[in-house]
Structure prediction request, 71 residues.
Amino acid sequence: FYALIDTGERGGDAAFKFMLDRNVSTCPGSKFGDNSKNSVRVSLAGSDKTFEKDVSMLVSALKDWLNVQTN
Prediction:
C-alpha cells in the first residue's frame, strides 16, 4: 500500500530530503508526474511488528516539516 502525502508548495524533493535526514524513507512525488510534485510517497506495507513505530516516525517528521514551513 502506498500513499501520497501533500507537503505544501515547497514540498516534493525538499521534503524528501528532509524526511530522509530523519530516517523516514519516502520517494519524491515528482517521480509520479506534475500533479504529485509537491508530495512524497510512502509505503504502508512494512512489518506489523514495527508499523506503529514507523508511522510515529513519519508523523513526527511531517510535523517538523510543517513547523519549518510556517516559521
Notes: The radius of gyration is 12 Å. The CA atoms of residues 21 and 61 lie 9 Å apart. Strands lie at 2-6, 27-28, 39-43. The helical segments are 13-21, 51-70.
